[in-house]
Sequence to fold (873 residues):
Amino acid sequence: MKTAKKLSLALATAAMAIAPAPAFAGWKRITTEATDVGKGAFVVTPQTEWSRWSRRPAKRGEIWTQDGFGLNMMHFIGQVGDGDTLFKDRKKKERPMPKVRGDMLVTDLAELFEASFSIEYDVTQFDVRAMEPSKLGGHDAIKMTYEFALPNDALTRVGEARLAKVDGQVYLVNFIAPELHYFDQSIEEVHVIMDTLQLK
Amino acid sequence: MRYILAVAAALSMTLVTALPAHAQFGGLERTEVKEGYQIKAGEANILVFRPNVRVGAQTTGGMHEPNAEWTETAKANLIGAMQEMHGANGIELVMVPDQEGEMGDVVESYTALFGTVASAVLTHKMTYGNRLPTKKDRFDWTLGEGAAQLKELGGDYGLFFYTYDSYGSTGRKVIQGLALVLGGGFVPSGVHMGYAGLVDLNTGDLVWLNVDTSMGGDPRTVEGAQKRVAQLMEEFPLKAAGEPGEDPEGVVIVVPPATAEDGTLRPAGEESDLPATEATEEEDAE
Amino acid sequence: MRSLLATAGAFVALACAPAVQAGDKANRAEYPVFTGAYEPEDVDERGLWESFDEVERKVATSKDLIRDEGINQYMKDVLCRSVGDDRCNATRIYVVRNNAFNASMAPNGMMMVNSGLLLRMRNEAELASVLGHEFSHFEQRHSLQLFKRLRSGSDIASIVSVVVGVPLGAFFLLDVFSFNRDMEKEADVASADYLAASPYASRAAADIWVRLIDEDDARAEERKRRKRGRSTGWFASHPAPLARSEYLARATAEHADDGDYGFERYGETMDPYLLTFFEDQLQRNDFAASKFILDQMGGDQWRPIHYVMQGELYRKRGLPRDLVTAEEAYRTAIEAGSTRPEAWRGLGLTLMRARNREQGAEALATYLELAPDAPDAPMMQMMIKGS
Fold:
């Protein structure tokens, strides 16, 4: 059996030299004014300033952070139609992303998110803490709170996702952070954003 | 992109190991200090959380060979040098022993959070091409107020540090020479990196972080460790003058502006070789 | 819905039952002579141990470990029964929640086993043979040998890197501790010896490796990619699975014992965890391989839990014809006496998606009766009302 790469990764001094620098891409300041997000999929008015990463997670998607992705990360992904994937399907042969289907129930959307998120970030442990009806920008939505772990990491990380289907298109807003301090630091603002944004 | 999160996690152990790429191109040396921050006056204890010290040799191929004896010696030397240095400033270093039970979890979690925070600072503040717009003009990362729980261990500050040394072997130095002769690529001989960070446990704020990917001083020797610690502690926050809650008293040293022998002022930054004069009753702004 | 924590309680009762010592098999072999737990000897080995001790400190705090005492004790028991008590105490086992089939052995005695491996074992004897295999990497100091070999190997790479200007040395580190073919074979043979001396059936070891490649074939077919074959990728560092099965079969035939498979014991111990481990596997959008795993696990003795898993497998893919299969699977599970609330949840959601809202709502109502505190209860109440 092969020794887990994780082990040697932890030992190796080379771990990061090999992984291409993760975030050497542009950043844009998001101010507290109404902002077009995801090529017009949303209009969002944050209460504080955020930084937007120039690489899109999806065709009509954006990722924001304030302190760095390991500390707070917010996804906006909108207008995902029948047959499309939530996150870009970058490696179809190695780790294909599940697709949205027209007949999915709202609970199926939550499961779709769970799988897509886990594949995108290589999360092997994902547990739902709560699932309840909610709103996203005034539309009926499902709200899922969850915890997850990253390989060889001593931090419990938690997230809240809300998903809605409007006119056959799926919309997702998701926020993740370490449970220690960082989740609570932002969650109130995240709730306001989820409640007040507009879906287009 | 999937590796972003995993990377953030991996970094908590091997923050500076992220940097060999930089190290090969001249090294990265960065310090961030919270503006105007000072260690409180009077008695100050700093908790030192399990320092991560790695020492080994580098083979001709660049592989790292861990060496347990070197690591042990270096760790003892570094801690000794650090205690000496801070002790001279009236700061006591408290080595936090391994904790059991609930406090064990608290220490583990905050150690991990520190690693994640430090790697965020490195990625998004110290790496200029990748600065977050929200962080361009500030250094305000924190572990949160919950970090105050750690004060129970007997200190008001938390210090985390890491050093990594891989000494070049003869074989590698030969190849290095060969590369120069042939005009080939750059083969770094030896890797010497370190970082250290200080957290104010009253607020949880990260008040100082120093990262250096090409450090001097051989921590396997006492003198080398002193040199290393001096570099590792570069721009460490100063201690506020006086006693807490009391008016400062005693002797305050005021250094007059440096003058050359003919009486003209020397340019700032140049050391004065005149003896300091003593003054009393006046508080030095420093 | 994951319910690892909920079921953990139930598990403790099982785990507390004394590990069944299978009645000694008729022709049990002797364990090879054990020289005693060793201490690291030269400078390389001390360095490796010390480094891995540090890695282990980190691993031990990791949130992706399964900390439940029951499953950890069980793993230890199985290893001890496999390699003998004097050997097993030199190691620590960590169970990692990860759907991939993997286990690893560090030079300092730290063993890591993925939950995905537990999902793929059919009985305790198979698990015992894998744990024995990993253990023998440790006993035979394979990491150290490899480290020394690589040290000279990467020196060549450095000369190459002078020319291209890229320090290849870094790349070697990633795979420093993946053992090579000869070592794998050596470990296989050693583990066959352990198994022969253990209460377990020696034959159990033979076809784990063939199943592994069959699983990947199924995956390759579904994803329309080239099959990895028997000599590339993951398998390059390992003996070809067919050859491996053959020599393992030969080795075990010599012992021709009538030992225990621990089939029921494995099933009872794993049952509370299987659904969680399988959901982790389903999350990878890996239908064909998941189906293969389930078929292998069930064999010709499907238990109610296997039908629940089958329901989840098809419901989550969710093609129109899958909904029919899923409904049938959940109903079979319930008829066969499954008390898992997930069976009703799955049935309800399947029916609703198939536009049979009334029956779907009934099934969901039963789910909530069985699991009133389920984390998704508010959502399911809404589904019932909205139907």
Summary: Chain A has one domain: 27-199. Chain A touches chain C through 55 residues (CB under 8 Å). The first helix of chain A runs from residue 5 to 11.
